[in-house]
Design brief:
Chain B: This is 4Fe-4S dicluster domain-containing protein. Chain B: Pfam families: Fer4, Fer4_6. Chain B: InterPro entries: 4Fe4S_Fe-S-bd, 4Fe4S_Fe_S_CS, ET_IronSulfur_Cluster-Binding. Chain B: GO terms for molecular function: 4 iron, 4 sulfur cluster binding; metal ion binding. Chain A is mostly helical. Chain A folds into 2 domains: about 60 residues, no CATH class; about 250 residues, Fumarate Reductase Cytochrome B subunit (Up-down Bundle), CATH 1.20.950. In chain A, α4 runs antiparallel to α6 and α11 crosses α12. Chain A is elongated. Chain A starts with a helix and ends in a 13-residue tail after the last helix. The relative contact order of chain A is 0.11. Chain B is α+β, with helices and mostly antiparallel strands and about 200 residues long. In chain B, the strands form 3 sheets. Chain B has a two-stranded antiparallel ribbon with strand order 1-6. Chain B is globular, with a radius of gyration of 16 Å. Chain B starts with a strand and ends in a 6-residue tail after the last helix. The chains are: A mainly alpha (about 325), B alpha+beta (about 200). Chains A and B meet through α1, α2, β1, β2 and α3 of A and β2, β3, α2, α3 and α6 of B.
């Protein structure tokens, strides 16, 4: 807005100042000048004709570059910084107040299969890609202020270069893993009435008493949908960026970057919490994604409805053909 | 020290593209990279106007502000240069630049743009002045030889002026006063946050 007012001011000034010196030979500004001024006033690019093959060069001035700069240097830095550092602060407070969430009644010694090998493998493919994508992405915004002073320009360029390459290529296994996640877990992530009760009860994170929950509680369903939908948005906008100007023009590229980076920093903040509660924050949780076998008491505490369902499956299952009646030997 | 600027008097530019050719030749710029270009507005219609545009060596340059690896630097003459050995070819400077000045050797799928290249104001780069390494990476260093950028030197109508901002603004001001009209200094408001008051 400020730029437009300045431009308008300059136009008025030009219009007012020129005739004074024109001494009767004043000419109206050319149509092209007026068009260019109109474009700048409305914040649109000044576009013309060019005789070289690169048609992007026909954009004479694109004022949106400034807005994108403002976004990249100010908005993104603040949103990203507050999201990630804020989440770390929340987790620190949570840890001090609540401590590590124990298994009520201790471990039973009996386990139940929570995730099979394909689910775990896929989870770790997505997770490892995400961590590298997140670090190399954060590096593009914050590395210059955080890492560059520590390692010096040559090493920082090397790190950023390999980070960029990793970012561009790991996008593909990451997206593939998201598709698998969607197919594997969507049936257990449809929101239902249990989720409302779980949320009303604070999910057992605040206060006492763990609300009822199926295979995934409302918090986990939230993580699932943030991963799938946020991941889809990040993937689509990311592919726009990795094939520059193939799908869109300069403003589309800027918009892709804005969508990509804002959703990405918010996802990073969410995943920091996910990593915390899945590892050091909760006793018995990490086994779900390492061995796939969780302690039965942990499962009953956090996913009682799911345990009942699994147990019912076992009770209702037909015995194998080779099974013999007890005491038949 | 001087504050080096470009000033394009679009009332004089005849779209001869000599500046483009001079730049290409002097700096041996590879195919596909155009450090300078001429854009024609309202082509073929009354009031057609051509503008020769390159890096304007902005005050508080947007490219330098957004560069993730901080590879830009400004010389004592306020010329905006960059270090190709540090550039990672991310393309951010092109998104931020109002003038479309940054160029890349390739289209850049999968981040393969290569090192960014742009107008150096014929001032080379961070390598030793007029060394072979500097020429290969950045082209000529006429500034070190006490000369101005060749595009402006070659301009047949002197539509394109290069030099200290105060001096070229004064030349332009006198022109406009003598002939009685002027479209203003192209891009100055965007690049230098000022315009030439007549």
């Amino acid at each position: 807005m400020k730029i437009r007012i300045l431009a308008l001011f300059a136009v008025l000034m030009m219009g007012a100042a020129l005739p004074a010196f024109a001494q009767g030979t004043a000419r109206e500004p050319s149509v092209a000048d007026e068009m260019a001024i109109q474009s700048l006033l409305t914040g649109n690019p000044v576009h013309g004709r060019i005789t070289i093959p690169d048609q992007r060069a026909a954009n004479l001035i694109q004022p949106q570059g400034r807005e994108w700069r403002e976004f990249h240097n100010v908005t993104l830095a603040w949103v990203g910084g507050i999201a990630v550092v804020g989440m770390l602060a929340i987790l620190t407070v949570f840890r001090m107040v609540r401590g590590r969430i124990p298994i009520e009644g201790g471990r039973s010694g009996r386990t139940i299969q929570r995730f099979n090998v394909f689910e775990r493998g896929n989870h770790w493919m997505v997770a490892s890609c995400f961590i590298i994508l997140a670090l190399s992405g954060l590096n593009l915004t914050f590395g210059r202020h955080v890492l560059l002073p520590l390692v010096g320009p040559v090493a920082f360029t090397e790190i950023s270069h390999w980070g960029k390459m990793a970012h561009n290529f790991l996008a593909f296994p990451f997206t593939l893993g998201l598709v698998f996640m969607l197919l594997l877990w969507i049936k257990d992530n449809i929101p239902n009435g249990t989720d409302i009760r779980w949320l009303k009860a604070g999910g057992g994170l605040v206060g006492h008493g763990e609300p009822e929950s199926g295979r995934f509680n409302a918090g986990q369903k939230g993580i699932f949908w943030i991963t799938v939908l946020g991941g889809a948005a990040v993937a689509v906008s990311g592919y726009m960026l990795v094939f520059p100007f193939f799908f869109t023009d300069i403003q589309g590229m800027q918009l892709s970057h804005i969508v990509h980076s804002i959703i990405a920093v918010l996802m990073i903040a969410v995943m920091v919490a996910h990593i915390y509660i899945g590892t050091v924050g909760m006793d018995g949780a990490v086994e779900a994604m390492t061995t796939g076998q969780v302690d039965l008491n942990w499962a009953k505490q956090h996913h009682n409805l799911w345990v009942e369902e699994e147990m019912a499956k076992g009770r209702g299952a037909a015995p194998p053909a080779s099974a013999k009646a007890a005491g038949a030997d | 020290m001087a504050r080096m600027k470009f000033l394009l008097d679009s009332d004089r530019c005849i779209e001869c593209n000599a500046c483009v050719t001079a730049c290409k030749n002097e700096n041996e710029v590879p195919w596909g990279i155009n450090r300078r270009r001429v854009v024609t507005l309202n082509d073929g219609k009354p009031g057609e106007r051509s503008v020769s545009m390159a890096c304007m060596h902005c005050t508080d340059a947007p490219c330098a502000a957004v560069c993730p690896v901080s590879c830009f630097y400004t010389t004592a003459d306020a010329i905006v240069l960059h270090d190709k050995d540090l550039c990672i070819g991310c393309g951010y400077c092109f998104y931020a630049c109002p003038f479309g000045a940054p160029q890349y050797p390739r289209i850049g799928n999968f981040g393969s743009r290569g090192k960014m290249d742009k107008c150096t104001y014929c001032a080379g780069g961070p390598q030793a002045d007029n060394s072979e390494a500097e020429f290969i990476q950045y082209g000529a260093n006429r500034i070190a030889e006490g000369k101005l950028p060749l595009c402006a030197e070659m301009c047949s109508t002197k539509a394109l002026l290069a030099g200290d901002g105060e001096v070229i603004a004064q030349i332009y001001r006198e022109r406009v006063q003598r002939r009685g009209y002027g479209a203003g200094a192209w891009g100055w408001r965007t690049a230098y946050r000022e315009t030439v008051a007549i």
